[in-house]
Amino acid sequence: MSNPTQLRCSKEHEWLSAAEDGVSTVGITEHAANALGDVVFVQLPEVGDTVSAGETCGELESTKSVSDLYSPVGGEITEINEDVVNDPSLVNSAPWKAAGCSRCVSPTSPPTC
C-alpha cells in the first residue's frame, strides 16, 4: 500500500494524521514496518507525557533490531494504542490503519513532516 494522501510522513518514517479537534495520530510507515521485520515489542510514551518534534518518544523491537520511534510533532500524549502494545504484529499487518501508536493534542511545535 502506498502512503495514504491524508497522512504526512517524516524522514524517520513516522506518519502524522491531520488534526481532528486539535488531536493528531502518530504511527510508522509501511516502509519502516517492512524494514524492521516482525515487530515483537512496542514501547510508547505514557499518557500525559509531553513530546518534542523530532525527538525520541518510544521504541520498536523486531526480530532484526531495535529502532527508536520519533515524534513528528510536539505536544501532550492524550492516548496510546494499547492494541499495538498488546499485539506488536499490528505494526506489520496494518501500519496505516490499526497501528497508529499514539495521539497527541495541542501541538507545541510544527510537524517535522
Automatic annotation (TrEMBL):
Protein name per UniProt: Glycine cleavage system H protein
Family matches, as SUPFAM superfamilies: Single hybrid motif (SSF51230)
Assembly notes: The glycine cleavage system is composed of four proteins: P, T, L and H.
Species for this entry: Streptomyces haneummycinicus
NCBIfam families documented for this protein: gcvH, PRK01202.1
A biological-process GO annotation: glycine decarboxylation via glycine cleavage system
Described purpose of this protein according to its UniProt entry: The glycine cleavage system catalyzes the degradation of glycine. The H protein shuttles the methylamine group of glycine from the P protein to the T protein.
Textual note on the cofactor: Binds 1 lipoyl cofactor covalently.
Matching Gene3D superfamilies: 2.40.50.100
Gene it is expressed from: gcvH
Family according to the record: Belongs to the GcvH family.
In-chain residues carrying the UniProt-annotated modification N6-lipoyllysine: K64
